Amino acid sequence: MASSTKLHDAVRHDRCRLISRLVAEGTPVDAVDASGNSALFVAITDGPVSAVPYLLQAGADPNFRCSEGATPVHAACRRGSRALLQQLLECGGDLRLRDASGRTPQDWALGHADPQCRRKLVAFINSK
C-alpha cells in the first residue's frame, strides 16, 4: 500500500497518532489518493475532522488543488463548517480561489442544504 494511501486511510479512520507518525517518516502531507484528493480534503469531506489540526500542523496546504480544482477551503464551505473554515483561513486558506468550474468557496457554501447554515456561513465569508 502506498504511503499516501496509508495516510488517507489513517485520516478516514481517525488515527491521529498514525497520521503524525506517517508524516514524521516522510509521507508527503499533501500527497493525493487515487481520486486526486489530499488527506486534508478527505478529512474535511469524508472523515472525522479531528485529523484536520494534525494535518495543518504538519504543513498541509489549505489551498492545495485537489480533484476538479477544489481546495480544502471549498470542502469546508460545502460541509458548512465555520470552525473548519476559520482554521483553514488562519493557515492561509484563500476564499478567492476558483475550482475547475469557476466556483468560489462561497459558491460551494451556497450549495449547502440547510438554509440557516448556508446564511451563517455566507455571512462569515462576507465578513472576511
Automatic annotation (TrEMBL):
What Gene3D superfamilies would the database entry show? Ankyrin repeat-containing domain
According to the UniProt record, one GO cellular component term is:
host cell presynaptic membrane
Tell me, in one coarse class, where this protein mainly resides: membrane
Q: Give the GO terms filed under biological process for this record.
A: attachment of spindle microtubules to kinetochore; exocytosis; intercellular bridge organization; male meiotic nuclear division; mitotic sister chromatid separation; mitotic spindle assembly checkpoint signaling
> Which residues form the ANK repeats?
35-67, 68-100
Q: Which UniProt keywords apply?
A: ANK repeat, Exocytosis, Membrane, Neurotoxin, Presynaptic neurotoxin, Target cell membrane, Target membrane, Toxin
* Descriptive protein name: Uncharacterized protein
Species name: Rhipicephalus sanguineus (Brown dog tick)
Compartment(s) where it occurs, according to its Swiss-Prot or TrEMBL record = Target cell membrane
Q: Which InterPro entries match?
A: Ankyrin_rpt, Ankyrin_rpt-contain_sf, Tex14
One Pfam family cited in the UniProt record for this chain? Ank_2
Instruction: Kindly indicate whether the keyword Membrane belongs to this entry.
Output: yes
